[in-house]
Design goal:
The chain is α/β, with parallel strands linked by helices and 420 residues long. 45% of the residues lie in helices and 13% in strands. The protein has 16 helices and eleven strands. The strands form three sheets. Strands 1, 2, 3, 6, 10 and 11 form a six-stranded mixed sheet that branches. Strands 8-7-9 form a three-stranded antiparallel sheet. Helix 8 packs across helix 9 and helix 9 runs parallel beside helix 16. The protein is globular, with a radius of gyration of 22 Å. The two termini are 32 Å apart.
Length: 420
């Protein structure tokens, strides 16, 4: 069966499972009935909603407090943002409560979540499922988009409601590199690295941008992202990883500092790029690099680009633990963040975030679509057109794949030992 056919069949099956799960959740009465939204709002009124989320960005924290807080207050809900150093801390807290028998009135009402943390909670059956697609504003979400319906290769099945999106992009400096010389694939990037010794590097995995950079390369070497829609395949990984790590070893002496060291994270790579030590860096923001240029962390002449062979786009979500004390208020927040005006505000880098949309522009009313079009037009060439990003977007990988890449990179590249 062709990979694309398998992908469509898997997605269709996931949607059927989601519909069944929604019915089961309603029958069990474990969550408020979203078809009676007035009753959900009434149940949520007076609640203090504990939102546990990564707290490492002052700008994002301010946006949550100053934008969502007042809107929830209008509905009688007090938002209490609980900052986390790592989302895994909230996951572990929920799992610990459940293990201790605390099946209700838990300390966490809603979590900003995706990726491996989502996978961990789903494996433990620690998230409510079957609710997200029935929210009033869920009609604005393209649930058939694999980047929405799958989180790190796992069907979402209504266990998360999307909050925003991101997509991996390369950044170059027009003052140093001609656009005509940019690679359009990882195969061409390898040639570019050989032709420009010392001018390229990437963050050391498991730093997010480093792992994602390598994941996309593995996709290309394994025949495309479609090879992984059915989940992790050890034999397929071994074949592609053998090629990838052989290439990395061959390219090592052509990297910055001869590949003897690597940036710790994207901030380190941005500094190398801004200082002129390397000629490329990365971004994840669909709104582009305008905020970075404005802040002076990237030069005025920096511009984003993507490979024709694709880059990974994904979503981040809100998830409700099965023992949440205020599930109705959590559902109200998940619905609120999908409002077109708030999605537009979040997209605007001037508001401190520049996060990508979770809603489908094609499903919006004309005035809402016009507002987003006007905003994105103002980004200029510091951001890629949304249609360009959509055309090359790839789904995220199963967590087993990224775990294997991180493990093998540490062994082969960092420690310079054989993979096995």
């Amino acid at each position: 069966m062709p990979p694309l056919t398998r992908a469509l069949l898997l997605l269709s099956a996931a949607l059927v499972v989601t519909a069944c799960a929604a019915a089961d959740a309603g029958d069990a009465g474990t969550l408020p009935d979203t078809s009676r939204w007035d009753e959900v709002l009434a149940e949520a009124e007076g609640a203090t909603l504990d939102l546990h989320m990564w707290g490492g960005s002052t700008e994002i924290n301010r946006f949550v407090d100053e934008v969502y807080g007042p809107r929830l207050a209008e509905l009688g809900i007090t938002l209490r943002r609980v900052p986390l150093a790592d989302t895994a801390d909230a996951v572990n807290a929920v799992l610990g409560e459940l293990e201790a028998g605390r099946s209700s009135d838990g300390s966490i009402d809603v979590i900003w979540i995706n990726g491996e943390n989502h996978a961990t909670m789903r494996q433990a059956e620690a998230l409510h499922t079957g609710w997200a697609e029935s929210l009033p504003n869920a009609a604005l979400v393209d649930w058939r988009d694999p980047a929405v319906a799958f989180d790190a290769g796992i069907p979402v099945e209504g266990a998360e409601s999307p909050w925003g999106s991101a997509q991996f992009q390369f950044v170059y400096d027009t003052a140093r590199t001609d656009a005509a010389e940019l690679p359009a694939s990882y195969a061409q990037l390898a040639d570019w690295i050989r032709d420009n010794p010392g001018r390229f590097t990437y963050p050391a995995p498991p730093a997010f941008h480093g792992t994602r950079f390598l994941t996309q390369w593995l996709y290309e070497l394994s025949g495309g992202a479609e090879a992984w829609v059915d989940g992790f395949d050890e034999d397929a990984y071994e074949a592609a990883a053998a090629r990838l790590f052989a290439l990395l070893e061959e390219l090592r002496p052509h990297l910055w500092r001869d590949g003897a060291t690597y940036p710790n994270d994207i901030a380190d790579l941005d500094r190398l790029f801004a200082n002129g030590e390397v000629d490329m860096t990365f971004t994840q923001l669909p709104a582009g690099i305008g905020a970075n240029v404005e802040a002076g962390t990237l030069p005025d002449s920096a511009r984003p680009f993507v490979l024709d062979t694709g880059t990974i786009g994904d979503h981040h979500y809100l998830g409700i633990p099965v023992n949440a004390a205020e599930p109705a208020a959590a559902m109200v927040l998940a619905d609120l963040v999908l409002d077109p005006d708030l999605q537009t505000a979040k997209l605007d880098p001037a508001n401190g975030w520049g996060d990508g949309l979770a809603i489908d522009v094609g499903r919006l009313a004309d005035h809402d679509r016009a507002a987003i079009d006007a905003l994105t037009a103002g980004f200029g060439d510091l951001a890629l057109p949304p249609e360009r990003l959509a055309a090359v977007r790839l789904p995220d990988a199963p967590p087993e794949l990224t775990d294997a890449l991180d493990r093998d990179w540490e062994r082969v590249v960092r420690q310079q030992r054989p993979r096995s």
